[in-house]
## 1
Amino acid sequence: MTKVDAQDLRTNETDDRGRIYLGTEYANKRVTVAVVEVESDHPDEDELAAAYREASESAEELAEEWDEASDEAWDGLDE
């Protein structure tokens, strides 16, 4: 069995079915693979919820500012 040095560890991306191409140097050899860490390309639910709350709060603030500016504009027309 060939041992892998820690310096030989590589990060690969999987295809849409979770498969990784190891390369031709591993052809016709038995390979043991360990998954050390998994990163997602998509934000998790907590990140999405926080972003939604932030956007919602920003939209409310913007609507309030617009309402005030609109009222001032209408009041200016009445003069």
Note: The mean pLDDT is 81.
## 2
Amino acid sequence: MTSKVDEALSYEQARDELIEVVRRLEAGGTTLEESLALWERGEELARVCRRWLEGARARLDAALAEEEAKEAAEEGRE
């Protein structure tokens, strides 16, 4: 479950922290417990990023639909 603090992260903050988590996991040298904690944190950050991207997609889709509706209305007037 994502915390209130995670929900307040911007896309860029979550992405940058996720990059750092992946870097640390790829570097190795952590205990199993540390690796699991990093993996769990990475999953949380990925969810935050996914929500931001889904929100951006919804806004783009709405803007495109609005533009198409305007164009259709203008064509109907001609």
Note: The mean pLDDT is 92.
